[in-house]
Amino acid sequence: MNILTYPSAEETAKKLAERIKKEIDGSQAYYIALSGTKKATLLYRALSEEDIDWKKVHFFFSMDLFSGKQKGLHQRLAKAHLFDKAPIDPDHIHPINLEAKDAETAKHEYIDEVSRFVPSLGGHFRFDMVLVEMYDDGQALGFHPGDEELYSHEAAYLTKRRPMDNEELVTLGCEALGSAKSIVFYALGEELRFMVGNIVNLMPSAKLYPANYLLSLYPWSYLYSDSEAMREKSYAIY
To answer: What is the DSSP letter of 174?
Structure first.
């Protein structure tokens, strides 16, 4: 895991947006998978302010809620804070079909959609970047504590239910995540400090966090964090 920490959430989002711009500048085509809720809006705003050649970029989603009051939240926030703010061709935006008859149908339709555009590696999609928001209970990419059996799932996307409210979601599978050129986790805000501290300090309790498992599974991943989320880091072990 490569950790990059900046003084504020806004500066962290700005630095990550600059990295994405640099990667786009060096590519002929760029395929990025978004996910995230409130904290993601900081990154989306920062991206919308960058001078990016949007014609190169195709936007996908690594997850979204298929049912419940928060249905489509990840895609709605991306639309409001990025797609509606920057001159992005609507044909380059590839949302999960949340009007499909059920989550399984939406999953299969989305696998077909992604297959039409994103290059593959070893039979899996190879996104240029997958963005993963971290939450204070250690969940990430739709995986919650107790979802260990899903880590070995071979499907590019899968469906599952959230344990807190039984709502369905569609999310990227672990093997497809591992095929991405860049995997970037982001943790912003002081409410994440104990979760992030447990991970970076190698505490036994971190073993319960899906975020920790994914970071361990893909050690080339990057963690972008602000100083508030990193407050519990112990420098004694480094």
So the answer is: H
- Count H helices and E strands in the chain, helices first: 7, 11
Residues 224, 14: Cα–Cα separation, whole Å: 11
Q: Which segment of 11-25, 149-163, 217-231 scores lowest on mean pLDDT?
A: 149-163
Contact 146, 41 (CB under 8 A): no
Residue in the block written with tokens 């112990």: 234
Beta bridge partners of 32: 59, 129
- Per DSSP (E only), the strands in the chain are 2-6, 30-34, 57-61, 63-65, 120-121, 124-125, 129-133, 157-161, 168-172, 182-187, 222-226
pTM: 0.92
β-pairing, 168-172 with 63-65? antiparallel
How far are the Cα atoms of 126, 147, 198, 215 from residue 138, in angstroms, in the given order?
Answer: 25, 12, 10, 11
At 73-107, the pLDDT tens digits run 999 999 999 999 999 999 999 999 999 999 999 99
Is-contact 37 81, C-beta < 8 A?
A: no
Closest CA to 200 of 218, 215, 182: 215
For 44-74, the pLDDT digits (tens) are 999 999 999 999 999 999 999 999 899 999 9
Name the burial class of residue 161, with classes exposed (0-12), middle (13-18) and buried (19+) by CB atoms within 10 angstroms of its CB.
Answer: middle
